[in-house]
C-alpha cells in the first residue's frame, strides 16, 4: 500500500482460533489507524497482503465479527499461500 496516500489507506487485521467457526476481524481502520495496523503487523512478523478489493469487503465487517461464508474460499487460499511462503 505504499503508493496509496496515507489518508486513503485502509487496513483490516484478521485472527483465527480453531475454536471459532471462521476468521474474525480484530482491527480495522483508515488513514493513520491503517498505518498503525500495518506497522504493528510488520513489527510482529505478521504477513501484510495488499488486495484492495478484499480489504474493501472486509472493511464492511464489525470488529470481532467473523468473515461471511462468501469469503471463506478466498481467505482460505490466502492463508494457504502465506503458510507456503513461511515453509
UniProtKB/TrEMBL annotation:
GO BP annotations listed: protein secretion
Keywords: Bacterial flagellum protein export, Cell projection, Cilium, Flagellum, Protein transport, Transport
Alphabetical list of Gene3D superfamilies matching this protein: secretion proteins EscU
SUPFAM superfamilies documented for this protein: EscU C-terminal domain-like
InterPro entries noted in UniProt: T3SS_substrate_exporter, T3SS_substrate_exporter_C
TM helices/strands, residue ranges: none
Protein transport found in the keyword field: yes
Keyword Protein transport: yes
Role summary: Required for formation of the rod structure in the basal body of the flagellar apparatus. Together with FliI and FliH, may constitute the export apparatus of flagellin.
PANTHER family: FLAGELLAR BIOSYNTHETIC PROTEIN FLHB
The name this protein goes by in its record: Flagellar biosynthetic protein FlhB
Amino acid at each position: 500500500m505504499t503508493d496509496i496516500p496515507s489518508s486513503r489507506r485502509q487496513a483490516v487485521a484478521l485472527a483465527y482460533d480453531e475454536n471459532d467457526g471462521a476468521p474474525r476481524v480484530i482491527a480495522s481502520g483508515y488513514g493513520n489507524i491503517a498505518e498503525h495496523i500495518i506497522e504493528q503487523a510488520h513489527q510482529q512478523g505478521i504477513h501484510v497482503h495488499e488486495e484492495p478489493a478484499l480489504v474493501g469487503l472486509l472493511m464492511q465487517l464489525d470488529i470481532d465479527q467473523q468473515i461471511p461464508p462468501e469469503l471463506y474460499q478466498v481467505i482460505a487460499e490466502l492463508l494457504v499461500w502465506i503458510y507456503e511462503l513461511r515453509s
